[in-house]
Design a protein that fits this description.
300 residues, alpha/beta, Arc Repressor Mutant, subunit A, D-Maltodextrin-Binding Protein, domain 2, 3 domains, 5-stranded mixed β-sheet, 13 strands
Length: 300
């Protein structure tokens, strides 16, 4: 038990970068925090923290220890909370980091339905374009487009969203229709990142095209407005553009080829989640699957 308590204390210090703030969080004097961390370092035989007059920083050994400890501590705390919530109505605050356009198009109706069913659960949603630090920031999960590069995180696939290539009639009148994927190199393409586009023909052959254009942005909504204004060809989710397709404001291009679906993940630091978070993610996956059946998107 002492080992776990010191581990819990070390995680608090590493996150807050302060003996005083860690002590306040755990209701301990900062002198006790400093003494117990020193004891922990003597037990493991390594310096885990570098102390300065202003802040505390992890050493390389401390970082490695922290990466292991913080998950153990979080899962132990969640296991305890799960026991105390077994007979209670789901309640509490869920903090999440989510992409803006995904939230507006897919998440908002799901949140509205979920809140009617579980009124005691509240949400604090961060829709800023910067990706949350799941270790340092107070979020329970993040929704991300594409798998995370950090292999220490838990990435649960929740949806695959069909994408289309589109342009406005005005753009096509000025620049012409692409007839083959390689024609895209002659066009202005609106991209979320400066990377090749991939298309598949009906025989399963892949075509990788080094596209270029005036605009690269991390907001699909902005790129859609530029496409509607005649500034280029966009590759985006069908659901996002269906009203514009139906109204003739955008034209579906290269229909004989298909774009890879956009993969959406729920990212957490642990598989052991609070009951309220697990409940919402299961609800989210179920509703996204229903939407996929209706719109042609697929879910994994």
């Amino acid at each position: 038990m002492d080992v776990f308590k010191n581990m819990q204390l070390f995680v608090a210090v590493a996150k807050s970068k302060s003996f005083r703030r860690a002590g306040e969080e755990l209701d301990l004097p900062s002198s006790t925090v400093s003494r117990r961390i020193a004891e922990l370092e003597r037990e493991v035989g390594l310096r885990l923290l570098n102390r300065t007059t202003r802040r505390v920083e992890l050493t390389d050994s401390g970082l490695q220890y922290f990466e292991n400890c913080q998950r153990i501590v979080a899962e132990a705390e969640l296991a305890y909370r799960a026991l105390t919530q077994l007979h209670d109505e789901p309640r509490g605050l869920i903090r999440a980091s989510v992409p803006v356009d995904f939230s507006l198009t897919y998440l908002s109706p799901i949140l509205a339905e979920f809140s009617r069913l579980y009124p005691a659960i509240e949400f604090n949603l961060d829709l800023t374009p910067t990706q949350a630090d799941l270790v340092g920031d107070p979020v329970d999960f993040a929704i991300r487009i594409g798998a995370p590069k950090d292999q220490t995180l838990i990435a649960r696939p929740i949806a695959k969203i069909d994408t289309l290539l589109l342009a406005s009639p005005a753009y096509l009148h000025e620049r012409g229709h692409p007839r083959h994927p390689q024609d895209l190199v002659k066009h202005s393409c609106l991209r979320t990142k400066d990377a090749p586009w991939q298309l598949m023909d009906r025989q399963g052959n892949s075509h990788v095209i080094e596209v270029s254009g005036t605009f690269v942005a991390n907001n699909p909504g902005l790129l859609l407005q530029l496409a509607l204004a005649g500034r280029g060809i966009i590759r985006t989710a069908r659901t996002l553009v269906q009203p514009d397709l139906d109204a003739g404001r955008l034209v579906h291009l290269l229909a004989r080829w298909s774009s890879p679906p956009v993969e959406v993940y729920a990212i957490t630091t642990t598989r052991l989640l609070p009951a309220k978070v697990r409940l919402f993610l299961e609800f989210l996956v179920a509703r996204l699957a229903q939407g996929a059946e209706a719109t042609g998107a697929t879910r994994q």
